[in-house]
Amino acid sequence: MASEGTLHSAFVDELRDTYDAEKQLTKALPRMAKAASSPELRAAFEKHLNETRTHVERLEAVFASIDEKARGKHCDGMAGIIDEGKAMMKEDLDDATMDACLIAAGQRAEHYEMAAYGTLAAWAKVMDHTEAANLLQMTLEEEKNADEKLSAIAEGGINRTAASAAHEWDGENRSTATRKKTARKVPRKGMHPSYPR
Ligand SMILES: [Fe+2]
Ligand SMILES: [Fe+2]
């Protein structure tokens, strides 16, 4: 057991937080895959779900490597990100916009994990927990790849499709607004100076 108030105890604390965050993600990712319309996006979420299950196991190996029991501590940060994602999924969005928003939600989670693993790997390294550092670095690379894959999918067409839909919608409203404005400008008979009285 690590003594309190040291970098080692902070490391164990962060590991517990991240262990819980990964477990939360194993429940959130299937919902995100189900909500995705793009087969490529769904496949990316499913692939990362499998990686996430490996991340949980890898963290158990990290705990073991420093003679600590694998135990989670509720991660409020990841819970907040997941709650926001759940609220977004209830919104009435067109398919491409929903996919773009799912990517945004997924990338928030990946960046949160990247921050956690970046810190954990650096701390493990500086404390000479070499095995732990290598395992944490491996997961960090997979989180970065997952994030890049989501960017590639978004930029490979989903964002553009969502933007086109938004512009069509705006255009319609603009023309409606213009029509209304024009209609208001049409003078009623007898009210305009150019009208014969
Ligand atoms: Fe992960
Ligand atoms: Fe991840």
Question: What brief labels describe this structure?
Answer:
Ferritin, mainly alpha, disordered C terminus, binds fe (ii) ion, 5 helices, 197 residues, 80% helix, elongated
Description:
- With 197 residues, this protein is mainly alpha-helical.
- Helix content is 80%, strand content 0%.
- It is built from 5 helices and no strands.
- It has helices at 7-35, 39-65, 76-89, 95-126, 130-185.
- Helix 1 (7-35) packs antiparallel against helix 2 (39-65) and helix 1 (7-35) packs antiparallel against helix 4 (95-126).
- The longest helix is centred in the last third of the chain and has 56 residues, at 130-185.
- The chain starts with 6 loop residues before the first helix and ends in a 12-residue tail after the last helix.
- One fe (ii) ion (FE2) binds at residues 48, 52, 110, 113, 143, 146.
- One fe (ii) ion is lined by residues 22, 52, 55, 113, 139, 143.
